[in-house]
Amino acid sequence: MNLSSQEGTVFKAAAACHPAMVAAADAPGVTIPYAMLPSKDEDMAEVEKWQKGLKVPNIVEHFPDQLHGWMAAR
Fold it and tell me: Does the chain have fewer CB atoms within 10 Å around its N or its C terminus?
């Protein structure tokens, strides 16, 4: 979702539930408001670096009692 939220996107906002492969290097290119809902299985150190790199309004809410996939497959 990070890559589809960069310059030239047709979207007005984005959200990622239990995101896979969070890369802090992608954050500076995000150009729309973004919400991220990581589970206990995501690398929170990388999520925190990613959030610090954003230049847009954002929400990050950690769900430490949930497994990866909790919103889609469970």
Answer: C
Q: Encode the chain (74 residues) as per-residue pLDDT tens digits.
A: 567 899 989 999 999 988 888 899 999 999 999 999 999 999 999 999 999 999 999 999 999 999 888 887 65
- What is the value of pTM for the model shown? 0.86
- H helices of 12-54, where? 44-53
Q: Is residue 53, in this structure, part of any structural domain at all?
A: yes
Contact residues for 22 (Cβ-Cβ < 8 A; gap 6+): 2, 36, 38, 42, 43, 46, 47, 50
